Every structure is written in structure tokens, then in C-alpha cells.
Amino acid sequence: MRRGGPLLVEGPVEIELEDGTTVSSDRFRVALCTCRRSRRYPWCDTSHRRRV
């Protein structure tokens, strides 16, 4: 894990969000957003690379 970057997790994964909804991915590895800039949160879309 890098500071400001994604967290790589071996899949498949199922994640419960703060509002109680569940999202899942059957991919063999997923990148989880840790900066909350992603438009696809909780999945990383590399938005952490674009700093303001």
C-alpha cells in the first residue's frame, strides 16, 4: 500500500459500505480506493493521481 494510493486485495471480494449496501467483484485482484476521490468508490479509478 502506498500513501494516497489504492489498496490491492485478492478477490473475489464483497464489501459493505457505510450506508449498508453491499458491492462485490469477482475479479482475481481489485484496487480499493483509500483517498475517496474515485468516481467508482470503493473501487479505485486512479483519481488519486490527479492532485489539485
From TrEMBL:
UniProt-listed Gene3D superfamilies: CDGSH iron-sulfur domain, mitoNEET-type
Question: What are the record keywords, sorted?
Answer: 2Fe-2S, Iron, Iron-sulfur, Metal-binding
Q: Give the protein name, as stated in the record.
A: CDGSH iron-sulfur domain-containing protein
Q: Which organism is it from?
A: Streptomyces pyxinicus
Entry annotated with the keyword Metal-binding: yes
Alphabetical list of Pfam families matching this protein = zf-CDGSH
Q: Where does the Iron-binding zinc finger CDGSH type domain start and stop, copy by copy?
A: 10-52
Which SMART domains would you find in this protein's record?
ZnF_CDGSH
Highest taxon listed in the record's lineage: Bacteria
Which InterPro entries does the protein's record reference?
A: FeS-contain_CDGSH-typ (IPR018967), MitoNEET_CISD (IPR042216)
